[in-house]
Amino acid sequence: MTEPPAELDEADAPNHCRLAHRLFQVFGNPVFRRAQTDAIPVMVVSLGEREALLPLDAVQQEFGITPESEDGRMLALIAASLDFVSAIRAGDPLPSEILSGDASWEPAPRHREIATTRLRMQLVEWLNANSDQPTALVPTPEDPHLRQQVQQAITRAAEVLALASPQLVLERIEQLGGELAYIESLRDRLLRRVREMAGKIERLARGFRGGAAQVETLGQVKRLSAIALGQISERFQALDRHTGDIITALRHVEHQQLFIREHRDWLYRSQRAWDPILAEWDVFFGDADEGTLALLNRTYRFLAPRFMPVTEWISAIDTTRGTATRRPARMIW
Questions:
Q1: Does residue 56 belong to any structural domain of this protein?
Q2: Are 225 and 303 in contact (CB under 8 A)?
Q3: Fewer CB under 10 Å: which end of the chain, C or N?
Q4: Which of 99, 134, 168 is the last residue of a domain?
Q5: From the CB of residue 262, how many other CB atoms can be counted at a distance below 10 Å?
């Protein structure tokens, strides 16, 4: 992730892409995006019928744009913005993630309901932790016994947290649930789909018949998809652990918010990067044909630079290109 400049005061932070150097006027209205090859932030300018990609670091150095200048700080904000938007031009609004920390997208209402229901159930489990009262296995809002338990848990939580009324507990649940709704959305949009992709690859591998190179590619894709699923799953597990103690979570809502947003943004960047390849696996039905082999190759090209151990990745470069001249850039979502 590219961080916005720390010295930029919130009061002085611009909310739109503005650049004053005449360089940006000469090239018309250039587009800023990430390069497809190594994901570095670049400025794309038109040269007749062709496009030129100029790395932002090189642009700053070549034209003497210092990091402390207004344009330097704006270029840093542009680079950070590209974690959340595909491209940006002069005059475009900057994404809210780098300005206020709020998300620039919205979860579905059902994800908000899932998040708040889970928090309420955690309160009931906390209330019943030292009692013999069972917690409903499948919570439903219509269950009068569950509603009663939730109200008792909220009332007790207000006492433990030294809050003036149970309404303040409800407000904290809504606030925390609003943040966790994004995580529930990403659990659906990223984790579920990666898990389904890994399952399809696993099933494909069981009866796959092909040449040695194709079998090797499938084996690599299977291994790397398992690594990817493990890493993504760990993010969600870390979030679940961090919010598992419901009373601590409600006592320190602002701290929880910062932690959740950090993971939310990482997961959202990941989901944006994964989305094109996952869209193909979403409609894959298991036929081992030429289209499947092409999809496996595309999947390998996506997974290898992100999840293959560095030593193996360098070895793969040596095999295909002769000599690895540099270590691969760190993974950027």
A1: yes
A2: yes
A3: N
A4: 99
A5: 13
